[in-house]
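In this section we walk through a basic example: taking a raw amino acid sequence and producing a predicted 3D structure, encoded as discrete structure tokens. The instruction is simple. Fold the sequence below.
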Amino acid sequence: MSKKENSGLYKLVAFMGKGFIPYIIGSLGNSAINAFCFNLVMAVLMKDLFNAASKGSKDLFMRAIIIAVLSLLIAVVIQPIFVYMSDKARKKTMKKIRTKSYNHMTELSISYFEKNHSGNIMSRLTNDIKIIEDIYGNHIFQIAFILFLGVGSLILMFIYEWRLALFAVIFEILSIFISVRISKKVRDISDDVQDKRSK
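The resulting token sequence is shown next.
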């Protein structure tokens, strides 16, 4: 088996099969709408409203209202479609994983259960399935959302104030470095807790 086929990401994609395409389209579409319509557009909207109030400009006010209405319409009409696509694919995949796990458990020999603690087996199985469900349901969406929001925010900041944008880039690099270091320690602690719970 190649390193690619043995990787966790490859297995997550392989489990979805044909459902991966609608799932990734739904997840990316949902995260993009959340990032742009509910965050970036709202930031521009508030800027226009403040400028309209300070300058007494009806044109800026009307532009802000039009942007708000269009953004809301896009979110209300299109977002449910993306959510349905990703959720349907996710639920089908989780059903497949649970069925496959159950069938695999029934095929194990008695000697296997005699050699391995049943609490450890159930704990691992339950927690692993929960982790996979969280990855499909939240983690991929959050990663895509952060990417869309980050790129969009950087573009807006470079347009309005390039020095602030440069500072944000440096700060984000430091944050990623710290998060990676902390996540490794949290993962090690989680593994220790899981091992203790299984005993």
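Looking at the output, two observations stand out. The chain has a mean pLDDT of 81. Residues 58-107 form the longest helix (50 residues). In the next section we compare this with other chains.
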